[in-house]
Amino acid sequence: MIRQTMKYGGAAAKIRSMYGRRLRPEDYSALLGMHSVREAAEYLRGFRSYTDVLRGVDVAALGRADLEHVLSGALNQEFIRIYRFMSKEDHPLLGRLIERAEIDEILSFLRAWDPALDHEYVCRMPDDFLKYSSIDFKKLEHVTDFEQFWSELEHSKYYLPLANLPRDRGASPEYPLAKSVMDAKYYTDLFTLIDKRYSGDVALKLKEGYGAEVDLLNIVAVLRIKTYFPTMEQDIRGYLLPVGGRERERFLDALVAAPDADAALAVVKASPYKALFSGGVLRTIDDYAEMYLYRFNKKIMTVPVPSVYTPLAYLYLKQTEVQNLVKIIECIHYGMTPEEAGVILPGAAPEERR
Questions:
Q1: How many Å apart are CA 147 and CA 139, to the nearest integer?
Q2: Residue 41 lies in domain
Q3: What is the reported pTM?
Q4: CA distance 240 to 247
């Protein structure tokens, strides 16, 4: 405990100072009461985190993806700051956030080649991340043949998981299956890294946090398939992420074996994830999962003994704040409340201070 405080105390103090500059419920309330996107942007320019990224930007003229990219600039700036003052020993773990960004870019590209999805690929990975990537995502903006995608990808760690998926020549793999194998690759590599570099209480906390992410993604996938795509149930395991530990395996087995969505939901409510359903009634299981992870990471920020999880929790909360802002600005643009738009804003309600 003393060793952890000595190792991470300085970095944690800086991170908690950054966390102290987060938007509060009263800020969300003020933003939700504004009458134009430009008015909301002017309000945000008063916050140090957003001043630089919004300087000279006409927010009202941006589409959702462009707006999210601009606001995410604040998250990327803070990631780089944190990366620089964390120990080099922890850089590989923090670097997994860059890997997550790579995977999101690849999935964005695959969506652009899916005829059922109205999506055009534009690289939105920040320059500070691009320089660490083995893939030239800017080049992918200009490919005219899907086989060129494989040529660009073949020297990366993502080539084999995707290349082994069934597909027609010149076509992309089935998107849901591609997303599953990419997520599986990400979490498998992540847990391997934790086992290799960390031990004791730090390793347990990391596995608890990332294990919860995996469990929640699997819960959402199982409930969605059992509710909307029952014909996919025979291949359901192919859409789920690998889990670690006997208890998690038993929980996943029970979810998969449930005869329908209601029975699967009963399994969740009898598990440690019954806390998902506390704190009010939300619309979807995705909303419950989002709130669970928000509360988990917020709790990490209040733990007296700092660890490598402190910056990871902060960056998760910062990402949530950016996503909240995108939702709010869209609500303002369309003259809707979050309730009417069917979105939730973790951290926006006063009771979230608890």
A1: 13
A2: 1-86+308-354
A3: 0.87
A4: 16
